[in-house]
Amino acid sequence: MKQIPVIAIQLIHIQGPLKGEIQEFLNPSISIGRHPSCDVVFPVDVTVISRRHATITREGNRFKLVDQSSNGTYLNGKRVQEAYLKDGDVLIFAEGGPKVSFLTKSIKGDSPDFYSTVSAASTEKADIAPHAQAQPSQTASPAPVPDARVETMRVPLVIQYGPTLRDFKQVPVTIGKGPDCDFTMAYPGIAHQHAQIFYSREQYWIKDLTGRQSILVNNQAISSQAPLNPQDRLTLLSGGPEFRFLGDGRLAEIVESAPREPSSPVTAGDNITAEKPHPEKSGKKSVSFFKKILNR
Q1: If 0-12 CB within 10 Å is exposed, 13-18 middle and 19+ buried, where does residue 177 land?
Q2: pLDDT tens for each residue of 219-232
Q3: Rounded Cα distance, 205 and 222, in Å
Q4: Residues contacting 212, CB < 8 A, separation 6+
Q5: Which residue of 20, 88, 119, 247 lies most exposed, with the fewest beta carbons within 10 A?
Q6: What pTM does this model have?
Q7: Helix, strand, coil fractions of the chain, as percent rounded to 5
Q8: What is the SS3 assignment for 56?
């Protein structure tokens, strides 16, 4: 029997009451709205969202968005009734309403009856207790990894940082503050050419271009270059921009969360992700975790 490829959907909430969350779905159909039976449930007081606002349904290896609302669903700024989605698409549910980025990823372990046995979503929450966050390692650095060759490869790379979403069709991609970089970052301390993402030996790699061991992977400085594995924490500069490598060539910014004021008890329906300007705009570190504002 021919196996069905397993493809997960990731919805990255970049505006609205669920801002700062990444929801991952393995369902063949995803419902979106205010009704509690929906897979993506928005608070009942977000009245621009219909009780059953839209669905995303798998058709073969494609995913179809269908609007079921009265206020409309927008795909990359254009109102649509039905449309097929691609990685990096930005969806807005009602004009000025919640905004999400659509991504997919393949999962190993395909099964012919996979979708009859799996119908759940995992949500990566925006806030992590301070004691649960990774601390710098006090142990010796691991054995060096043999250098990989930097070559031009036609593989995708998606970088989400602040108000920016960039979708590259090939690597290497150079990151830095210089205008000659593929991805520019106006962050204090970032070098003219700071880092390079490339693909070798069937995986993605990060290369430090500063010569100062400025880049950390999982809180350990790399001497020259290092492979990237799913869920690795990539720090470009001590105290500076941090990313989570989500696998399949996707980098999502990590922005640390701030503790709630003790005098403000959490009640049902509270949005616990603080709203602060992005450091590129304000010069101060933002205080939400996995806060992403994608603007194509």
Answers
A1: middle
A2: 999 989 999 998 89
A3: 11
A4: none
A5: 119
A6: 0.47
A7: 5, 40, 60
A8: strand
Q: Would you state the structure tokens that stand for residue 223, as one six-digit string?
A: 């001497």
Please answer whether residues 252 and 214 qualify as being in contact, where contact means their C-beta atoms are separated by less than 8 angstroms.
no
- Nearest alpha carbon to residue 245 among 229, 256, 225, 257: 229
Three-state DSSP at 131 gives: helix
Residue 67: both structure tokens together: 């609007």
Which residues on neighbouring strands pair with residue 216, listed in sequence order? Answer: 221, 235
Contact (Cβ atoms closer than 8 angstroms) between residue 244 and residue 234: yes
Q: Name 142's Cβ contacts closer than 8 Å, sequence gap at least 6.
A: 220
What tokens does 277 get?
A: 């300007």
pLDDT tens digits, one per residue of 11-31? 989 889 998 888 889 888 999
C-alpha–C-alpha distance, residues 71 and 51, integer Å: 11
Region of 283 please: left (phi>0), alpha (psi -120 to 50) or beta. Answer: left
- In DSSP terms, 171 is beta-bridged to 153
> The tokens of 177 are what?
């503050």
